[in-house]
Amino acid sequence: MSSLARIPFSVLDLAPIVQGRDAADAFRNTVAVAQHVERLGYKRFWLAEHHNINGVASSATAVLIGHVAAHTRSLRVGSGGVMLPNHAPLIIAEQFGTLETLYPGRIDLGLGRAPGSDGATQHALRRGPRSGLEFPALVEELRGFLAPSRPGQPVRAIPGEGLDIPIWLLGSSDFSARLAAELGLPFSFAGHFSPEGMAAMRLYRHLFKPSATLSRPYAMIGVPVVAAESDEAARRQATTQQLKFLSLVRGNRLQLQPPVDSMDGLWNEWEREAVNQRLGAAIVGGPETVRRELEALVAETEADEVMIVSDFYDIADRLRSFEIVASLKNGAAA
């Protein structure tokens, strides 16, 4: 039995738009992936808030969460995350209170403090330059709206108040790790684009204070995974995610590109190093390679759960990758 047998697998989705397609197609694929991983036994399916990015359609995150929840039956669906400084906490409490009321016991509220956008978009969102620094106060305000109402409370979240909506703090550095530990909340680390900060997982466990929410720390690690029938096939398919990050490095985010036989000649040395740094935690390979590297990741981080991020041009390849990963829990590739 693989050591992965005890580890829940989950999925982070950005409703990616592939080259030549549109947001409607992305939403259809998102639902197809959610239904597929639900059948495979994945635990949760989160959607990430981003804005003004050509290849990402998950900007109206709460709306898309409701759409996915409506087309699945038991999968936990949530935000990975909502960028809280972009919103009034009351609005988030009402949105997720509505979702929890419609789909009781299935909604997660993951919170981040990054803008999920560029400077011009931050201005369009009416987000100030110090908004991220206000994150702890915003979290506290949001938690207040989701708590049972108090006598004389002047502003209430209806629906929202008194509902048991799990709150997670997300981060790519130690800031949210420290805050999650202080508040006794679960923590999700963004290893899928910030592999150099794995120490945040250890710091969270070291500083954790038990709370009414959690008696012991619970940490999830995000990781890019491209699984295929062989290492060679996976490496080719993984060029789609390399091209994605290359466009990010160049400041020109593109829709997901088809895989290529080789990245040689498509990037210079500096760009290659920058992309490889962003994807330093990526796991790419056939079933045995993926099993070995996932086991090593869990051992290194002591993660309680693994959240998989996957960039594929072809939806069939993406679905197959999730099948392969799921099969590793019982020690045999599908």
From TrEMBL:
The keyword Oxidoreductase applies. The keyword Oxidoreductase applies. One of its GO terms (molecular function) is oxidoreductase activity, acting on paired donors, with incorporation or reduction of molecular oxygen. It holds the Pfam family Bac_luciferase. Coiled coil: none annotated. One of its GO terms (cellular component) is cytosol. It comes from the Bacteria. Keywords: Monooxygenase, Oxidoreductase. Residues 10-301 form the Luciferase-like domain. To bacterial alkanal monooxygenase alpha and beta chains. This is Luciferase-like monooxygenase. It comes from Achromobacter agilis. The lineage of its organism: Bacteria, Pseudomonadati, Pseudomonadota, Betaproteobacteria, Burkholderiales. The gene is limB_1.
